[in-house]
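Human: I would love a firmer grasp of how sequence relates to backbone shape in proteins. Take your time, and here it is.
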Amino acid sequence: MSAIREKLSGAGDLLLRPGRVLLPEGPRAGMAVVVRAGMFHRVDTAEAVVRDHPELAPVDLPDHLLMPGFVDTHTHLTQSLGKSLVFGEPSEIFRRIWVPLEGSLDERMVYLSAKLAALECLRGGFTAAVDAGTRSEGHIGALVRAAREVGLRSVVGFICNDLGGTAQIPEPDVILRQAEDHLSAYRHDPLIHPSLAISIPEAASNGMLKAVSDMAAANGVVFQTHVNEHLVAVERSLVARGRRPIEHLAHLGALGPQVLLAHSTLITPHELNLLRETDTAIAYNPVASLWKGNAVAPALQMAALGIRFGLGTDGTRADGFRLMDAGEGLQRAGFGLATGDSSCGGGWLWLDRVTTGAAHAAGLSGVTGSIAEGLAADFLLVDLDRPEFTPSHDLMWELVRYGNRDQIDAVFTAGQLRLWQGWPVDWDARALLAEVRGDTAAAIAKAPIQRIHPVSQAHRGLGHYQ
């Protein structure tokens, strides 16, 4: 395997001849791809590719699947230092844990947190991720630098709150000027794709919500916000504005194909129609529902209505295979069992919504998400010579239910090998882990975090389960 790694790490074009390639229509044998200048230059039958490129020595990978990298449609790269502090906590942990933690991070800790999270993304097969924006004061450049160094394609949100929820709240005209600067700074970046964000609709005035959504549409970027995730947030919106969050965004004219709404778990039939009519996209975060949510987004109904959605982690755990399993599993438990639906979308739906469909929801459909000529060479080499895939009768379902990140041998973004068997090939991840371990305790101690429960060992000693 070390010889294969050396071939994959070399400079110049690559001609890869895997056992199977996962194309938009499904897995196919007898295919080959040429990677050139960070792109898929050629995707065709192995016979045709080898014939037309005699100058390239094929890298044979008979036991591997070449598949698109996963796209995480919703995550938080600057929350990795908190991780299990939120386990077992009641909903709206962002108010008591994430806002205080992120707001207290200095530039160096933002960098370390984002680099650790980006590494976890790649280890889990995510070659692209949509970051909802850091609430730390003025350190978005540190987040970008970390993501770029690791090689994670990132849609990076710039938070435009003018009513709260971040470390600092500038004047509205300053926010909009900074938003324009953010879009300009990364407009042509090969790995960083700018986005605009408002944490939750109640964190911004009506004028700001509309202005930011319009700016995103005019610039061809994504506007992202969290909506209808928790009952208390829906009720606050009803009390303050007389409408549920999605209804309020629709009333302002702030929905549209440029919009990516995270969660949307507590959603009415009327709101589903609003999403469909405006072509608004959704980030379906099943693990977040399992860990701290009030409900499960009706993803199957969204699919039936033609509502665009992709799978997102919400910063929970970075394993694209387990994310697909959770996405399908929650739909089966929440809706399929009651209706006798034994397929719940089929394996192909979940593969699509963490690759091609996710890229579409994230505003990256012309960039990544598929093994197709002209797209960025963001892909995985998955080892199929494993007990879980033997014997293989239905690879698409097997990837959803048997796949795991330890089966990923290689992770590429922009045509460059970034990880081999879980570890970076060109930088010292062990040193990063040591640095994070050494400095996180102090960062957590100074953050004004409010936890309801102690850590597990102490909580267990209390003798109750609440």
In short: Residues 320-339 form the longest helix (20 residues). The chain has a mean pLDDT of 94. The chain is about 40% helix and 20% strand.
